[in-house]
């Protein structure tokens, strides 16, 4: 076993997948007694070397599981790597007192890691986020291999088998049938009806430096002319306009009337006359 373990140590799935698989297959399968001894050493003594032996002796099992997910278009080496992560998590949590073989305990952890990897990488946009959607994704996709678009009866049957609403099945079916589209993909000049990527016809004018500069200059110029126009008014009219329009806590007509000892109607008239003078001054300045 020692030579086989050393051989696998020098390999990773992504470097040379076939060599890795051959090396993993040469590692002997543990007997019940050997597995229990190693598990007890790890569980009770924290023996890292025992954990290493348990992991390496089950690499062939991870490869077998990863091969069943080859239809998702993802690299086999990546699937194996993710499965190995699940195997290591299972070994860390395995209790020899459970009375089951490690392979039976680890299968859940291995598949969980592979499932998560597939959901993250199968499409740019994640197709399943909730627990129910994840279950539906893998179960529905396996059935879609032999079915076209589901009929009404097939839809209800699948929904009943998986314990979800029919509309959820139809939604997931649509996600499985969709495809990623590049935002800045190439155009086809030969056909008027050819696909045009959004990058070719969507324009964000907010990012145009010329427009930003123009807006900035306009605001600065308007503010300057407003301040000049205000200075042509008497102090009371300036104060009324500032209190009514140029402060966060705007004063009411009655508050200003009390301040100056006149009626609210007179304040309104002064405000109106001041606004006319301001407008005239700014028009002339423009």
Using brief descriptors, characterize the structure shown.
single chain; 286 residues; mainly alpha; Four Helix Bundle (Hemerythrin (Met), subunit A); Arc Repressor Mutant, subunit A; 3 domains; 0% strand
Question: What is the secondary structure topology, with strand pairs?
Answer:
Elements: H1 2-9, H2 17-25, H3 32-45, H4 48-56, H5 59-67, H6 76-93, H7 102-121, H8 131-144, H9 152-162, H10 166-177, H11 209-230, H12 235-245, H13 253-260, H14 264-285
Helix pairs in contact: 3-4, 5-6, 5-7, 6-7, 8-10, 9-10, 11-14, 12-14, 13-14
Give an overview of the whole structure.
This protein is mainly alpha-helical and 286 residues long. The chain folds into three domains: 2-122, Four Helix Bundle (Hemerythrin (Met), subunit A) (Up-down Bundle); 126-178; 218-285, Winged helix-like DNA-binding domain superfamily/Winged helix DNA-binding domain (Arc Repressor Mutant, subunit A), CATH 1.10.10. 65% of the residues lie in helices and 0% in strands. The protein contains 14 helices and no strands. The chain has helices spanning 2-9, 17-25, 32-45, 48-56, 59-67, 76-93, 102-121, 131-144, 152-162, 166-177, 209-230, 235-245, 253-260, 264-285. Helix 3 (32-45) packs antiparallel against helix 4 and helix 9 packs across helix 10. The protein is elongated. It starts with a helix and ends with a helix.
């Amino acid at each position: 076993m020692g030579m086989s373990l050393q051989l696998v140590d020098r390999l990773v799935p992504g470097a040379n997948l076939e060599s890795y698989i051959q090396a993993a297959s040469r590692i002997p399968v543990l007997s019940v007694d050997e597995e229990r001894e190693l598990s007890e050493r790890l569980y009770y003594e924290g023996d890292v070397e025992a954990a290493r032996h348990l992991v390496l002796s089950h690499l062939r099992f991870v490869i077998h599981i990863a091969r069943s997910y080859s239809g998702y278009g993802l690299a086999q080496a990546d699937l194996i790597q993710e499965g190995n992560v699940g195997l290591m998590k299972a070994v860390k949590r395995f209790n020899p007192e459970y009375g089951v073989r490690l392979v039976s305990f680890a299968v859940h952890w291995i598949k969980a890691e592979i499932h998560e990897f597939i959901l993250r990488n199968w499409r740019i946009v994640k197709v399943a986020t909730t627990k129910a959607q994840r279950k539906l994704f893998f179960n529905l996709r396996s059935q879609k291999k032999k079915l076209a678009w589901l009929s009404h009866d097939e839809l209800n049957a699948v929904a009943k088998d998986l314990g979800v609403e029919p509309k959820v099945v139809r939604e997931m079916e649509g996600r499985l049938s969709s495809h990623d589209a590049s935002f800045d993909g190439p155009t086809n000049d030969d056909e008027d009806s050819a696909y045009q990527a959004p990058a070719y016809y969507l324009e964000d004018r907010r990012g145009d430096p010329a427009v930003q500069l123009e807006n900035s200059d306009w605001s600065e110029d308007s503010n300057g002319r407003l301040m000049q126009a205000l200075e042509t008014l008497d102090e009371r009219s300036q104060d009324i306009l500032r209190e009514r329009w140029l402060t966060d806590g705007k004063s009411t007509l009655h508050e200003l009337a009390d301040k100056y000892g006149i009626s609210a109607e007179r304040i309104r008239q002064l405000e109106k006359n001041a606004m006319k003078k301001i407008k005239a001054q700014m028009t002339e300045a423009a």
